[in-house]
Specification:
Layout lengths: L7 H7 L7 E4 L2 E5 L4 E4 L2 E8 L5 E5 L2 H9 L3
Antiparallel strand pairs: 1-2, 2-4, 3-4, 4-5
Length: about 70
C-alpha cells in the first residue's frame, strides 16, 4: 500500500507554521496569524503579525523551508 502524500500546507504546519506560533524570519520576529497559503510549490505565503510593530503582514515562506517540507513528504 502506497501512502498518500500530505498536502504542502499540512507539512508546513508540522514544521511550525501554525496559528499562534512565533518565529523569526527575515530578521524580524512574527506571530503566525493564519494558515499557509500555497500559491505554487515554490511560493507559499502566511499571514503574520510583526511582534515589534503589531502590523499584520503577508510573508513569503523562504525556499529552504519549502524544500524541507517537500523532503519530509512520505
Amino acid at each position: 500500500m502506497v501512502p498518500t502524500p500530505r498536502p504542502l500546507s499540512t507539512r508546513l504546519k508540522h514544521l511550525g507554521f501554525t496559528q499562534g506560533s512565533q518565529m523569526k524570519l527575515y530578521g524580524e520576529k512574527f506571530e503566525v496569524a493564519g494558515e499557509p497559503i500555497v500559491v505554487t510549490a515554490e511560493l507559499v505565503l502566511v499571514d503574520a503579525v510583526e511582534t515589534k510593530s503589531g502590523q499584520l503582514k503577508r510573508i513569503r515562506i523562504p525556499l529552504p523551508i519549502l524544500k524541507m517540507a517537500h523532503d519530509s513528504a512520505p
